[in-house]
Amino acid sequence: MKKYIILVLTTILTVTSCQENKQTQQTKENSKIYLEEFHSYAQPNDAVITHLDLDIHVDFETQVIRGIATYDIKNSGSDQIILDSKFLEIESVTQNGTTTDFELGDFDESLGQPLTVAIKEDTKQIAITYSTTAKTEALQWLTAQQTADKTNPFLFTQGQAILTRTWIPIQDSPQIRITYNATVKVPQELMAVMSAENPKEKNENGVYYFKMEQPIPAYLIALAVGDIEYKAISNRTGVYAEKSMLNKVHEEFSDMEKMVVAAENLYGDYDWEQFDVIVLPPSFPFGGMENPRLTFATPTVIAGDKSLTSLVAHELAHSWSGNLVTNATWNDFWLNEGFTVYFEIRIMEALYGKDRANMLALIGKQDLEDELEALKESPNDTKLKLELQGRNPDDGMNSIAYDKGYLFLRTLEEKVGRESMDAFLKSYFKKNAFSTTNTEDFILYLNENLLDKNNITFNTEEWIYQPGIPANAAVIESDAFSNVEKMLEEFLKTSEIEVTKTENWTPQEWVHFVRNFPTDISIAQMQQLDDTFDFTNSTNSYITMVWYEQSILNDYHSNNVDTKIAEFLNTVGRRWYVTTLFSAFAKAERIEEAKEIYKTARSNYHSVTANTVDEMLGVK
After folding, report:
1. Beta strand 275-279 pairing with 294-297
2. What are the pLDDT digits (tens) for 175-196?
3. FRET label pair with 567: which of 75, 246, 326, 538, CA 20 to 30 Å apart?
4. What is the enclosing helix (H) or strand (E) of 365?
């Protein structure tokens, strides 16, 4: 009986605590003052949305989503509320259940159009009847042939940075957080999942209901529809995938629960109840997307040996840095990504050891050096705090935010000590939970809660507001990589390599080996390495990508590599991989060859990838 009473009291206290936490979150959001926003037409200080109730039908025959988006709003005395809309058909709008006037403003290529809705002082709710169009950028409709099982079509959304407005009319700013419910009707043979509480199996009528009780920014509202199944890893982690992929995905990501425990040990409780991953078809444009409760992931990380699962650690880390504490504007993007890379590498260190973590950090450092070289004509873009007014926020989604942000935090850790750093970050996530912050507020919090209180001087403003990398950057070393470099150096001198010494190399070591080929490596040496290690036919997508890059740059054509590169670019839509290879074609002055491949490949890419390659290759 005592145990029962204690259990009941514990349950009551837990429920009460959760309710109070959610009320605190919403109160915090309702009382905030919003910053000036360059990438949204919304004027949230006048009128702001607080909750979305979405009722939509997903029509694969017409490739259209249509339905009604109903919003609870907070009106601060305005006679209008402004939402973002791009490539949407707006049919009608009501306020408090009564038809009201609305207007779509001038169209901007990046921002779309402001949707201005007439409201009254007592308006509590607006409802928008709308449909998507063929130009909607967030949606990718895939035929059955573009999926793994090749039996049914597939749909997924990608909202970051400002594409949610292309499938839902919404105030599409990261500083505006809302809760949402959704009713989604799909073909009976398919299942729908969202960044919310999700079904674990298909139902008979094809109607699915979703609830996200924690407030999130619009870019994290996500939907996927396909012939998918679920397989649990633990009581709070699991995977969705097409049937032919499910067991492979489950095995590859079997350490997910261990990752969640490691993350909680570092920076506090996981506040989203469930952490699942869905592996999407190959056209998904990113490695992963941290949609709350349901990370979207590329199949390119399914290597068969868990060697690329740092991506899962990265998206999990976003549950704190990015989802729990969100950059207020896209100029502050480094607050999402730099913190997440730091957290990801700490999770990987906790699970797999310091040397593997340092290998990941060093690869990131190489990516950063490449990015700095690419941006040498625009040094302002190498600052952590960006200046993206008048530009697409995608311009800031590069190694600067990720890897310079990480290096700043790593250097800070070495200055203040890991124990102090961890205590600071844990308090930072707790203090700012379910809210947004900007660079300036972070600096104040850093000074007050870490540097000043410990009488520590650190060049924070140089790291954040100046281009390039400060001189005090942490030095990252890896014995494993040092050995790889020695092996490469010896091979280049002698054209001999001891295969037995490479038998236990990780993919990260192989990537380091291939990426560090000198510009004068000979075709004969490339051929010898390919014959020995079969790089052209590697089953690890990361190794394959860097080998293909070197093949393009060094004019290597043996072992059917050109055909393999074309096949790779026609089947993989991950933007990082695709742009790396098309960039190599451009550097090698093989642009016409690249365009020929792109003619057939483009239709397999999400708009996020296609738009980037269009600009890179000068394709209209």
Report:
1. parallel
2. 999 999 999 999 999 999 999 9
3. 246
4. helix 354-374
